[in-house]
Amino acid sequence: MSDEHAGDSGDDSRPNSDARPIVYDLAPNCTTDDVETDAYYHAVVNGVVEYGIFVDISDSVSGLIHESNLSADYEVGDRLVVRLESVRENGDIAFAEDTPDDYRTLTVDHEPTITPISSLSVGESVTVEGVVTQIKQTGGPTVFRIADDSGIVAAAAFEEAGVRAFPEVDLDDVVRMAGTVEDHEGTRQLEVDGLTVLDDETAADARQRIDAALDERAEPEPVEPLVEWAAFEKLRDDLEDVARLLRRTVLEGRPIRVRHHADGDGMCASVPVQLALERLITEVHDDPDAPRHLFKRLPSKAPFYEMEDVTRDLNFALEGRARHGQRLPFLLMLDNGSTEEDVPAYENLAHYDVPIAVVDHHHPDPEAVNHLLDAHVNPYLHDEDYRITTGMMCVELARMIHPDVTDELRHVPAVAGLSDRSKAEVMDNYIALAEDEGYDREQLLDVGEALDYAAHWLRYNDGASIVNDVLNVGCDDEERHRELVEFLSTRAERDVERQLEAAEPHLEHERLDSGANLYRIDLDKWAHRFTYPAPGKTTGKLHDRKVQETGEPVITIGYGPDFAVLRSDGVRLDIPRMVAELNEEVVGGGVSGGGHLVVGSIKFVSGMRGEVIDSLVEKMAEADIDEELSTTA
């Protein structure tokens, strides 16, 4: 029984700590949990019978005073003081008329038994306490989603058809809901009888309790990495931070939106994370459609977060909030998002307090982006480099989120490494791991080629089903996977050969003072447009061919009206630094871009192409030869 405040039937000046008898005045919602035998209560007569009277001491606590325990006659509505004699096993309550001398009154608020959401059972009348994570108005009831420290449940409250129930309730409020648990299309749903927004102090206590429990549940799973690698260990704590954020986001019921680079490594990064998060969402939410509502993956064609993409994402999120009462999403950037070019998009999201995490292996600009991010994982931040691909990192991230996905992901780091030409010392270990799963090196290369081919034609679509089947992650038909990879990789090889036949005769060659071979080509003139492979991959394929032919250091530049794609082998370029210098030195060039030290792309004003390319070549001519960066050494 909880005492809220005291009232006095006699002298109000007496202190509340005196020894006078107490008569309790129960709040209307008090139950038998709030009463005890031999205690005194204010009562109201609700019925008169031959053998006594019935009285209420709250809306739900009533009982009989037998005529033998009455000293006067009473009518319905009369007030009196009673003593609770007994509560029988069948629920019947017996009172006696009994007014103590010189008593004081204490009012009592109901403190219901709070049922954890994870323990709800159909048919029970319960009270739950939690945070409002969604408010959706349907044509009938208002549907709230409530998250406590154990789970999430939908709660339907009906005012009238299409009319918002409990309009005083907002997203992120801490509330107490009472109602009956019912089965709604195979899931539990609370049919709400009453809802209270908790006051500041009570809400703060509840929020603190829920936060502490969610923090504990959000802890990443303690998994050992698939291969031992000292370089990767430097990143483990950062990856655990991201896993913790993502797990907490799922537990809170907030949507997650993933943006990833539209290439093999980007897909090897995003698909495992998607699989892990969708499985966790399924475990946390009763709603079988929850993964579809709470997770969205989309590719980014550019090597940074374009304003076009962020505008689409933000518009989608705001529409979701308006139509479905959802919180704004958590944004996860994969194989993308570490550079100064991402800043305008991030600043746009900052107006709406959208949390952002980045897992990337492109050369970063931490001073430009870190203050806009909630987490940032990048090997360059730990004196490592792009040989640790985003796909390798995200396979481990996925396992930290949901370890059960491990058996479906053992081949993925090898695909990511080969797709992104990683020279990591553990590539042999990753390939051996994939061989144990039935993939040899050529098959892994085919998977990567098929992913790139599919990504090219999917453009801005996630292509969830076909990508999962190509990568064999979340795929339910091994034979279909093998046939699809063979078909797509064969088509990709055919299209590449056609492109190289058209373009290679027009490569311009010169020998730089450093001894490196420089090849350049105007892709706008000499390559098929709007087909596979795109300019970046066309440049890469031409570059690979010249590296194999010469066995010497090679730099290749493929350019168009307002862009250039850069590849290097055996030459220590620093493309991010070069881009920064070109932007300052070529006045009016509008140079932007980036990438790795030896792979990158830039954009510029088309009228300044000659000046930009000439300045770029001058900088490349000054770059040092480095056998460590050679694939033929």
Characterise the protein shown here.
The chain contains 18 helices and 26 strands. It has a 6-stranded mixed beta sheet with strand order 19-20-21-22-25-24, with helices on both faces. Strands 3-4-5-7-6 form a 5-stranded mixed barrel. Strands 9-10-11-13-12 form a 5-stranded mixed beta barrel. It starts with a strand and ends in an 8-residue tail after the last strand.
Question: Globular, elongated, flat, extended or rod-shaped: what is the shape?
Answer: elongated
Strand order of the largest sheet: 19-20-21-22-25-24
Number of strands: 26
What fraction, in percent, of the residue positions are helical? Answer: 25-40%
* Rg, alpha carbons: 34 Å
Average pLDDT metric? 91
Strand content: 15-25%
Number of domains: 4
CATH architecture heading of the largest domain: Alpha-Beta Complex
Distance between the terminal alpha carbons, to the nearest Å? 81 Å
The CATH first-level class of the largest domain comes to Alpha Beta
Main sheet: strands, sense, barrel? 6 strands, mixed
Give the count of helical stretches.
Answer: 18
Unreliable segments (pLDDT under 50, ≥5 consecutive)?
Answer: 1-15
* CATH fold label of the largest domain: inorganic pyrophosphatase (n-terminal core)
Alpha-beta classification: alpha/beta
